Amino acid sequence: MDELVIAGRAYQSRLLVGTGKYKDFDETRAAIEASGAEIVTIAIRRTNIGQSAGEPNMLDVLPPSRYTILPNTAGCYTAEDAVRTLRLARELLDGHDLVKLEVLGDPKTLYPNVVETLHAAKTLIADGFKVMVYTSDDPIIAKQFEEMGCVAVMPLASLIGSGMGLLNPWNLQIIIEQAKIPVLVDAGVGTASDAAIAMELGCDGVLMNTAIAAARDPRLMAAAMRKAVQAGREAFLAGRMPRKLYGASPSSPTTGLIAASGQGG
Question: What is the chain's alpha carbon radius of gyration, rounded to the nearest angstrom?
């Protein structure tokens, strides 16, 4: 089986999805079911998973018995805030230690602050967390996260929520080639072809939210993303044909052909 393995646990799906920006919990549930995702990320600062008594609880919609809940630090701009947020999530989820770390640089671009992210990752790893880290597409920084003990590195394809797709596949290729932990594209995917391209490059998975939630039909887009990730992975494993300017070698044999009428002895 071609499984995605993160922190020692195997998953059949290589598509990870977020839970924000849907119009209601029913739409959230329908889209995530259609995506086939097994790992679902939840912004602890924006979504109730038990910290607000009496309010609708996302865990009633997406039970931990069915999904691996991946708490994330969306909305955090300092290492201190990110660490505090994930410690709260661990308490709410009965010791759950697999988390998604993101520390943002500014509210306009949501570009990662890699300095603060490095500080937060170091603290969280020392505290026993298994950290999947959102970062820039800098291969040097990605390697640092791996060497300090992160369980997955998640470089952006383009800015969060932009839908611009993969803007720098060359950097992603370097990160993939040097990594010994899973590499998942996180942020910037806009449609199914973007997800397929990421997987064809050799990414181990894709994490997305806005591309599904902001689609005209989120459930249908989620189904498309599921197929795209699977197709991209299969294409990567199959190995594409070499690129060349033109096909000098015909695909059909040129010997042993029957001579045209009126020719030959």
Answer: 22
